[in-house]
Automatic annotation (TrEMBL):
It comes from Xenopus tropicalis (Western clawed frog). Coiled coil: none annotated. InterPro entries: LKAAEAR1 (IPR029152). Pfam families: LKAAEAR. Residues 1-13 have a biased composition (Basic and acidic residues). The gene is lkaaear1. Residues 1-22 are annotated as: Disordered. This is LKAAEAR motif containing 1.
Length: 168
């Protein structure tokens, strides 16, 4: 460079990541190459072959629609299929129920083992309270109606026994 000359700046051309040369394309791993080429426009040969394939598929679909005879469902066959479906559903429910019971049993055994391995009785009781071995079952509904419940409460409140001690 001479003393009075300005340094030449090379014009930087921003490289579009989607434009890749053939040599760079060949150097890429197959997965990356496939990702890059998935968004490229297909070549003329490829587009023509796609067009031919699509037209053949449409022709085949039109021919196959006319060839298939309409089958009238047999009511006896429908009933059998419905029964088979119900049986399969019952078997699936049974398998789920057995799996649930097996899991609950294994969980209870594991918790009992953990409780038994506690160093002190206080720790064992605390663990047993906080981790019950069986899930809490819902309380069953009251078998007594309102009138029967009132009679039972009256009998329980009778401390002397006027209602139960009957001398004939």
């Amino acid at each position: 460079m001479a003393t009075g000359e300005k340094p030449r700046r090379e014009k930087q051309v921003p490289k579009n990541p989607k434009t890749v040369t053939r040599t760079e394309l060949k150097k890429m791993p197959p997965v990356q190459r496939a990702r890059l080429l998935a968004y490229e426009q297909p070549s003329k040969d490829m587009a023509a072959s796609l067009q031919i394939t699509q037209s053949r598929l449409k022709e085949f679909a039109q021919k196959s629609v006319g060839d298939v005879p309409q089958m009238v469902p047999d009511p006896e066959e429908e009933r059998k299929m419905k029964v088979i479906g119900q049986l399969k559903a019952a078997e699936a429910r049974s398998r789920i129920r057995l799996t649930r019971l097996r899991f609950q049993c294994m969980r209870a055994q594991e918790l009992n083992h953990l409780i038994a391995c506690q160093p002190t009785a206080r720790d064992a009781i605390r663990l047993e309270v906080f981790l019950p071995t069986r899930p809490a079952t819902e309380l069953s509904p009251d078998p007594l109606d309102r009138i029967q419940r009132a009679q039972v409460e009256r009998l329980l409140e009778d401390d002397v026994g006027y209602l139960t001690n009957r001398i004939a």
